[in-house]
Specification:
Elements: H1 5-17, E1 33-36, H2 43-46, E2 52-55, H3 57-65, H4 67-78, H5 80-91, H6 98-120
Helix pairs in contact: 1-6, 3-4, 4-5
The structure holds zinc ion.
């Protein structure tokens, strides 16, 4: 599945908010990627930070090859309840209209600016993101 501009924006934000650190193994090896709990096939969770973590390439590959490891990793990082909510959001079949995707992307771009500012001020480690109203 091709990555669109919305994927690129949220991906950049997820790795920045995690301070370029793998949320599974804790390594900072420069291979950080944005990983989805529920597959990108489901649009309603595709650009939602509650469905995403930052992982190194090795952990991303390992979790793609092992569904159990995938599920357990996300539950450990996001919590069992959030994992269940992600499943329910995906199963709802809710779609996003183009203007809604644009609105979500604008929100994430503003969150990235906030994070970059905090980094310049010396803040390190994970920074929690504010969920866009349209996804609540
Ligand atoms: Zn890792």
């Amino acid at each position: 599945m091709k990555r669109d501009k919305y994927d690129k924006t949220i991906s950049e934000l997820i790795v920045a908010s995690a301070d370029y650190t793998c949320e599974i193994c804790g390594i900072r090896d420069g291979t950080h990627q944005c990983m989805h709990d529920i597959s990108r096939t489901y649009v309603i969770t595709r650009y939602d930070s509650r469905n995403l973590i930052c992982g190194c390439a090795a952990c991303h590959f390992a979790t793609m090859k092992d569904p159990y490891l995938h599920a357990e990793s996300f539950k450990k990082i996001k919590g069992v309840e959030e994992n269940q909510l992600n499943i329910e959001r995906a199963r709802s079949g809710d779609r996003l209209k183009p203007f809604e995707k644009d609105e979500i992307r604008a929100h994430w771009q503003s969150e990235l600016k906030r994070i970059n500012k905090l980094r310049l001020e010396g803040v390190s480690g994970k920074i929690e993101l504010e969920i866009p109203a349209i996804l609540l």
